[in-house]
Amino acid sequence: MPVTPKSSEIPRRGTGPAAGPPTLRRATLGTSDIVFFVVSAAAPLTVMAGVAPLAIMLGGVGAPAGYLMAGVTLAVFAVGFTAMTRYVRHGGGFYAYITRGLGRPVGMGAALLALIGYNGMEIGVYGLLASATQDTVTSLWGADIPWLPVSLAGLLLVWYLGHRSIDFGAKVLGVLLLAETGILVLLAGGVLLEGGAHGLSADAFTPGNIAGPGMVAVLAMAFAAFTGFESTAIYRREARDPARTIPRATYTAVAFLGLFYAFIVWTVIQAYGSDQVVQAATDDTGGLFFTAITTYVGSWAADLMHVLIVSSVIASLLAFHNAINRYGLSLAEEGVLPAALGRVHPRHRSPHVAGAAQTALGLVVVLGFALAGADPYTELLLWVNTPGMIGLMALQLLAAVAVPFFFRRAGHTENIWRTTVAPAVAAVLLAVALWLVATNVELFTGAGTGVNITLVAIVPAVFLAGVALALRLRRSRPRLYAGFAAEPNE
Q1: What are the CA-CA distances from residue 443 to residues 29, 217, 218, 438, 466 (Å)?
Q2: How far apart are CA 352 and CA 237, in angstroms?
Q3: 194: which strand partners?
Q4: What CA–CA distances, in Å, run from 104 to 81, 238, 333?
Q5: Measuring CA to CA, which residue among 153, 150, 154, 156 is closest to residue 133?
Q6: Of 176, 299, 330, 424, which is most buried, counting CB atoms within 10 Å of its CB?
Q7: Residue 97 backbone dihedrals phi, psi, to 5 degrees
Q8: Parts of the chain with a pLDDT under 70
Q9: How far is the C-alpha of 388 from the C-alpha of 310, rounded, in Å?
């Protein structure tokens, strides 16, 4: 039977400079700042221009409804998740929530899954940065540049931005996010002013189109497009009035992404016409958005969109980098990762050691793929991103399952909708979403069966490794185990 330590024996987190070493900058981020981090991680412009054409090609004109359905599912999930934010004051994000509901072994499995998931989502995107930059340079100037220097420059830039203070990063992301959403709004405005190719139509939302055979693939892509929205809780220690800020940021991010994605995809369908858009997407998947904005706004706007896709990718990299650093900081404070990763910069108040370590890991992976002669998009991006995406979806599912178990034991004043019904519905829907992505993984990787099985298998393997680590710590280091995911003031 494990030994439960006295509360005085559980390692503490400092509450400010006077309590010891520097800590994260408190009460810095408002709702809009956290929304910038979350939405930037999703990279709306990249998702729309790079993935939505494939969704249209496979799912037809009903594709916009797929994004709405994914948004509704995640909004239902947010009901229970945000209810828990009033009771869980830990800064460790999802793993703390999962630990409170499902126990320390599952919580530690979730913690390792979060590390792999966020690292996979970020490091793979350095391949996308290289590919997008190559395409932009070729499109604008007709030049061909090697991909590795671009990825290395991205690593350096993201490290520097993450090294700076969190409010500095929020300002950078705010500017980049406004720019990438602005170009999509410009496209939508041009289409609406012209009335589309054959007039505006609501065909995308008719039952026949929504129930089309390709909607399974669309739903898989739609859920993937929201990856990273759950990271609101990671910024708890830096948020102003987190009990209010985090729920507001979560709902705002989900609502914005769901409505914005659906609106932009519907707009592009209008640009070509419901009877011609699928063929247009099939003929030129990568150029669908660029052709539309050239037609309805001008070639200058297409050139600007090329540039803004690069900045969109940089914003996504920075958002995931910041999330990873805070997970690393928290797990270092728990004693699960080396204590050095828990150091905070005395001036910028950033987890700078965790940031440097994450950048070093990214450098190793990027150089490894480069030395192997891999393609930056089809291999570095897709192969590294895929297990990261599946891992984060699995975290969402575990968090939804954890909510009713937590409230069954905790004293609370919440209603049954928030504590039981919504989390249960969300768990079922998220399980379906995870199944859709895992069984349609070839849409994301373009790889063979062997590669796909390996990439999917990474997720349960990492989770089980975390569970095994927890069971080992329970025997060998009971004090550390008992203090895992403990409240700061316990």
Answers
A1: 37, 8, 10, 10, 29
A2: 16
A3: none
A4: 18, 25, 16
A5: 150
A6: 330
A7: -65, -45
A8: 1-20, 230, 488-490
A9: 21
Give the chain's radius of gyration (CA, Å): 22
Contacts of 257 (CB under 8 A, 6+ apart): 39, 42, 44, 71, 225, 226, 229
CA distance 283 to 281: 6
pTM recorded for the entire structure: 0.90
Question: Which tokens sit at 262?
Answer: 């659906």
Token code pair at residue 133: 């930059």
Contacts 24+ apart (CB under 8 A), 350-356: 350/24, 350/162, 350/163, 350/164, 350/165, 350/166, 350/325, 351/24, 351/325, 351/326, 352/163, 354/324, 354/325, 354/326, 354/328, 354/329, 355/159, 355/162, 355/163, 355/321, 355/325, 356/159, 356/163
Nearby residues of 403 by Cβ (< 8 Å), 6 or more positions away: 80, 81, 83, 84, 97, 101, 419, 423
Delineate the domains of the chain, giving CATH numbers in brackets.
27-91+122-374+430-441 (1.20.1740.10)
- The count of residues in the chain is 490
| Residues linked to residue 355 through DSSP beta bridges, in sequence order | none
